[in-house]
């Protein structure tokens, strides 16, 4: 017993010695930690209004506790299935179609040997990421309008324009493809950086052994970036319900609501526009819980398929 206590005291002392020796690192970490606690964990207290009939006059503590009333209201709402499916479809299709594109771009960039040409290509690919969402949506409305350049080609070929921004069936494809265009280049940076660490001698040796380009990519490049691919996929799948609000809301029209109404836009409308704060908080909390469950589930699946390598 005394030996165990002595070992615990020794561990505590070694911990204090470590902190004392590396205190500068913790001082540097402190601002980020404090900001995270204030702006990330502090606002979590406000989630309690999802279980109350919140009144701005009475405040959070003074408002009446109603339990799961607002969750029941959302789950039994006639809009629940439509909104949930719209959110899942938009996110899942975006993940399935968009996830491989940065990897393919990185693999292709890795084959460009001239540094100047590679930098120019990267600049071209990264540029759309820095365009404002409002500008992107404005460009979409201009290019896809009945008198826009795309419809001019369609009219020349078929005689009739296509109302891209008014028909619900086109919304998801426009949203996803424009997302890929704006974000794929920027998302490829992490893979390009990982591929830069591949020893060129491996490729030279594989070439001497008769391996073609696809074989070298399969057996050298892909194994190098596989751990990063797993982490990126887990994070993307875990945030599948956290689809961006701004772009979806800006692209909404009265005609495409059957496919464009998703949880973030619904929360905005009932919370800030209609003033039903408790109900909107319940919907938002439901969305966050689903995200956490998806993150845990996907991580477990990926760890089983990826030889135990996952997010944690």
TrEMBL record:
Keyword set includes Ligase: no
Membrane topology annotation: Multi-pass membrane protein
Domain spans labelled ABC transmembrane type-1: 84-298
Presence of keyword Transmembrane: yes
Domain of life: Bacteria
Family: Belongs to the binding-protein-dependent transport system permease family.
Protein name: ABC transporter permease
Organism name: Paenibacillus aurantiacus
């Amino acid at each position: 017993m005394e030996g165990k206590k002595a070992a615990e005291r020794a561990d505590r002392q070694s911990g204090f010695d470590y902190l004392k020796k590396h205190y500068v690192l913790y001082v540097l970490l402190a601002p980020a930690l404090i900001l995270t606690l204030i702006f990330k964990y502090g606002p979590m207290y406000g989630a309690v209004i999802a279980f109350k009939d919140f009144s701005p006059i009475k405040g959070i503590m003074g408002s009446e506790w109603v339990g799961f009333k607002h969750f029941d209201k959302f789950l039994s709402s006639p809009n629940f299935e439509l909104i949930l499916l719209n959110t899942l479809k938009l996110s899942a299709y975006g993940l399935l179609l968009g996830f491989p594109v940065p990897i393919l771009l990185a693999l292709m960039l890795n084959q460009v040997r001239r540094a100047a040409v590679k930098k120019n290509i990267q600049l071209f690919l990264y540029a759309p990421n820095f365009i404002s969402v409002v500008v992107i949506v404005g460009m979409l409305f201009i290019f896809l309008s009945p008198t826009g350049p795309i419809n001019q080609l369609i009219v020349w070929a078929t005689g009739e324009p296509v109302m891209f921004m008014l028909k619900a069936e086109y919304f998801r494809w426009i949203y996803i493809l424009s997302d890929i265009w704006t974000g794929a280049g920027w998302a490829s940076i992490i893979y390009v950086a990982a591929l830069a660490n591949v020893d060129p001698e491996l490729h030279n040796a594989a070439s001497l052994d008769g391996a073609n380009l696809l074989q070298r990519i399969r057996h050298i490049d892909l194994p190098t970036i596989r751990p990063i691919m797993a982490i990126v996929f887990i994070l993307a799948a875990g945030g599948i319900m956290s689809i961006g609000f701004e772009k979806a809301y800006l692209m909404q029209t009265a005609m495409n609501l059957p496919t464009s109404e998703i949880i973030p836009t619904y929360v905005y409308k009932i919370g800030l526009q209609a003033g039903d704060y408790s109900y909107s908080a319940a919907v938002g909390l439901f969305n966050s819980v689903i995200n956490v469950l998806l993150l845990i589930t996907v991580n477990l699946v990926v760890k089983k398929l990826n030889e135990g390598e996952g997010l944690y």
